[in-house]
Amino acid sequence: QTYRSPETIPQAHLPARYHSDRLYGTAILYLLTDDPDSFSALHKLPTDEVYHFYLGDPVELLQLAPDGTSEHIILGQDILDGQRVQHMVPRGVWQGSRLVPGGRWALLGTTMAPGYDDADYIGGERDALIRQYPHEADLITLLTRLDS
């Protein structure tokens, strides 16, 4: 985590989906590498999350919406080819990311307001997600941990 707001929003002033006070905002940096265990596992959050692509090779971001649809976003610097340097994942959408095959590394960041709290993180369970999104079974398998 590279930024944590010094101020908090009292829970009473937040939507009901938040069960405690939250920081005004947070930001992180993270590095993906070509190590097979280097990926952001499928998860969902109660807050919109803005992704920022900084350096390196393209990253595939999978989004699984509550209505059963999915979307593949490519984060990268080649904006003329449709890659995005910034992308917002709506709250309540399953999300996971990995390097596009053949890539070696990528430096990314995310920003959230209200800020991230570990209590908000809901990790994706492989079998349940495959049942709900069978058309994405291969990528769900790659973006979930064995213990999920």
Describe the structure.
The structure is a single chain. The two termini are 24 Å apart. The relative contact order is 0.27. Helix content is 9%, strand content 40%. With 148 residues, the protein is mainly beta. The protein has two helices and twelve strands. Strand 7 (59-64) and strand 8 form a beta hairpin. The longest helix has 7 residues, at 126-132. It has a five-stranded antiparallel β-sheet, with no helix packed on it. The chain has a five-stranded antiparallel β-sheet with strand order 8-7-10-5-12, with no helix packed on it. The mean pLDDT is 97. It has one domain (3-142): Jelly Rolls, CATH 2.60.120.10.
What's the helix count?
Answer: 2
Count of distinct structural domains: 1
Order of helices and strands: EEEEEEEEEEEEHH
**How many β-strand runs?**
12
Task: Just name the CATH architecture.
Answer: Sandwich
CATH fold-level label: Jelly Rolls
**What radius of gyration results from the CA coordinates?**
16 Å
Cα-to-Cα separation, first versus last residue: 24 Å
Assembly type of the chains comes to: single chain
Major sheet details? 5 strands, antiparallel
> What is the mean pLDDT?
97
- Poorly predicted runs are none
Given the C-alpha coordinates, what overall shape results?
globular
CATH-level-4 superfamily name: Jelly Rolls
